[in-house]
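Exercise 3.2. Students should predict the tertiary structure of the chain below and write it as structure tokens, then compare their answer with the key that follows.

Predict this chain's 3D structure.
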Amino acid sequence: MAYLFKQNLSCRQPKGFTLIEVLLAMAITAFIALMANSGLGTAITAAEQHEVQADMIAEIQLPLTVLERDIRHAVLRPVTDEYGEQVAALRGGSFNDVVLMLTRRGWDNPRGLARGDLQRVHYIMEDEELWRESWSVLDRINEEDSQQRTLLLDGVTEFEITFLDGGSTNASRSDIGGEWVDDWEKANLPLAIEFSFQLENFGEVRRVFSIPIP
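Answer key:
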């Protein structure tokens, strides 16, 4: 009777893992950890890239906003330059020294200075940099009269500007009618202006800004 009791106890003793089972479990655990680490690294890299992209878009958005405000507030007001010659209210082109010059209204006057709400604005490309120059005096005696100069964009490898002329039609380029031309030297204002430029480490940026008809 005692022999049977001892035999039953020996049968109930738990059985341990074999070496193969332990190695297999370790291998599976290592594989899962490797996959998780790889996925985590990919997610972190993607998040960092998205953050860099978002920062670049934010840096570009401000210059585009300045461009849009100037163009949408353009008015048909020619000016007299420092040589006494009359210059059109709006003129420009990609191959000119000044890619765009215009007169704009709606210039804020928060300090209540003795001046109007018109401003003369020039956009200039120099050494892959887009600059904005402005004057509070429209009919200038000299080039430096009340001039302000601001760097809007750098790293601009290519720059193009075109103007929508409403005097003719070209349905292939625009749904609103008109023909896109490379230069503008007319007495009237174009219907819209299109900008296209290449930025280092970002790519192509293209925007079309319409000019409201008064």
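Discussion points: The longest helix spans residues 19-72. The chain has two helices and twelve strands.
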